[in-house]
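Report of the visiting student (M.T.), summer placement. My assignment was to run the structure pipeline on a short list of targets and document each run. The first record concerns Integrase.
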Amino acid sequence: MAVIRNDNGNGYKIRCLNPRRKKMTTIRRNPKTGLNFQTKREAKEYEQYYLKNQVNLSLKFDSLFRHYIDDYMAQKISSSAKDVESWYRNNIQPFIGKRKVSSLKIVDLEIIAQSMQKDGYSVSYTNKMTTNVNTICNWGVAHGFLDRNPVAGYKPLKQIKTSEDLKYWTPEQFKRVLAAIPERYKDSDAIYIRFFVLFNYLTGIRKGEQRALQWNNIDFDRNIIHVDYHVNEHGERVRGRKNGNGYSIVMDRAVKDLLLEIHDFMKQLDGYSRKAYVFPSMTKGMNCPLGTYTPTRWIKELAEYCDLPNITFHGLRHSACSYWTSVVGLSPYEVADKLGDTVKVVLEVYADFFHEQKREVAEKIDRHSKALMKLLNEEEEV
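After the run finished, the structure tokens were exported:
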């Protein structure tokens, strides 16, 4: 679907998919005036009018998905498209695949969510599936298959996390994992995997943010890591962190020493530059980030090898937070600053990690409470 300048340079024409005939069509003149489209804006406006009036009210969701995935495959890698087809086939198609899109209602997504919850899927994964349905419908509107998104008002399930739900490794368990890496993987892979996993444990950085780091984001002179981008699930480097604006990490000695070691290692490889990724794809080259699912697979394999719980890759972030609070004794403000989160989020998610600090606060008050109670109970002299 595109508005293109005419070959002779005079005016514009429209190339778009006719939703009814399922074929590309070219519109060269504005039927309302009988003349060529004089401006790009005029062509765009008629394009939207044309598509909305060609909407097929009998369109099934299966058909809409096929158009969506064809467009998706034209822009993304085929392996990513296979993942999308897999989640659709397993989680969405059984419920609404044969339904007319125009007949869908918000309650249909609520039914999908309820069924997935009964089957034991997490709230986050369930929300991801219902969001995908919304995304496809929005795509259908943008590409003229639908005149509106019938499930636009659906509200995702609320996810209430507590520290009891968090999975993490203790420093002793993580030590076992590091020791197992050279046993589980061959030499070159083992070196790289150790770099990636240890860096995450020391910084608590999100996976997408770590994958997006380039050497020009590392300021060794000022000891600062600028976290200005993240890599999303489609492998795109996007400005800002996943949940907001960028932030910075001040390097402690261990983090800086590790980064210097990684830097020395990467400089020996072909393709190194200041714009190269700190953690590149070792198969596609220094200018491509590490794949989305590779770190997740590493943690699963290492957990199985060490007979430890699979905390998922995000569990390393929780492991770092557990260490900072229980061993280092950082405050909620200090933890929030290191994680690039707000104090409110840190207290909501990691509340139980701060028990020791709460006990210390109570002990400080105890040291003064006896004198306070004596003062409060003294009778005034008349």
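The chain has a mean pLDDT of 87. Residues 2-57 form one domain. I thank the supervising group for their guidance throughout the placement.
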